[in-house]
Amino acid sequence: MAESRVHTQFKLTSEDYLEVKVGEEVTLPCHLSPDTSAVATTIRWFKETECIYLYQNGQVTERSGYEGRVSLITQELERGNVSLRLRDCRRSDRGDYKCQVIHGEQKEEAAVGLRVREGKCSRTPVMFLNT
């Protein structure tokens, strides 16, 4: 007997880039559109080509160097929010990130760039010239 499934097509939406200061927390936005539950999907977040976060069957795997710093907002998965929260940002976190969501045969991806800048204290000397 064949199993009948309702398969909802979805797209991923994100932003082009975000900017954050070293040490701050940032949420890399990514949403299923239309709002579709992402609980039963596979969600991967990549930095460049390296998978840094995997959510599959309710299980989470974090890449070394990101443990305890990356997470999904699990209570938002039901509404299609697959954004990645990144804590304690480092300069090395800057770069291009990609969110990948797989549900059945469908695979969608969205990218967001992250710029990380120094905190409030500027280390650049400032010189004023009287003219």
Topology:
Elements: E1 11-13, E2 17-21, E3 26-28, E4 31-33, E5 42-47, E6 50-56, E7 59-62, E8 70-72, E9 84-86, E10 95-103, E11 106-117
Parallel strand pairs: 2-11
Antiparallel strand pairs: 1-4, 3-9, 5-6, 5-10, 6-7, 8-9, 10-11
Describe this structure in words.
The chain has one domain: Sandwich (Immunoglobulin-like), CATH 2.60.40.10. It contains no helices and 11 strands. The chain has strands at residues 11-13, 17-21, 26-28, 31-33, 42-47, 50-56, 59-62, 70-72, 84-86, 95-103, 106-117. The protein is globular. It starts with 10 loop residues before the first strand and ends in a 14-residue tail after the last strand. Mean pLDDT is 87; it is low at 1-7 and 121-127. Keywords: Disulfide bond, Glycoprotein, Immunoglobulin domain, Membrane, Signal. InterPro entries: Ig-like_dom, Ig-like_dom_sf, Ig-like_fold, Ig_sub, Ig_V-set, IgSF_BTN/MOG.
Side by side, the strands of the main sheet go 2-11-10-5-6-7
Mean pLDDT figure: 87
Give me the strand/helix succession.
EEEEEEEEEEE
Roughly how many Å is the radius of gyration?
A: 18 Å
CATH topology: Immunoglobulin-like
The major pleated sheet works out as: 6 strands, mixed
Notable characteristics:
single chain, 131 residues, mainly beta, Immunoglobulin-like, six-stranded mixed beta sheet, three-stranded antiparallel beta sheet, 0% helix, disordered N terminus, signal, membrane, Ig-like domain-containing protein, immunoglobulin domain, disulfide bond
Give a short overview.
The chain is mainly β and 131 residues long.
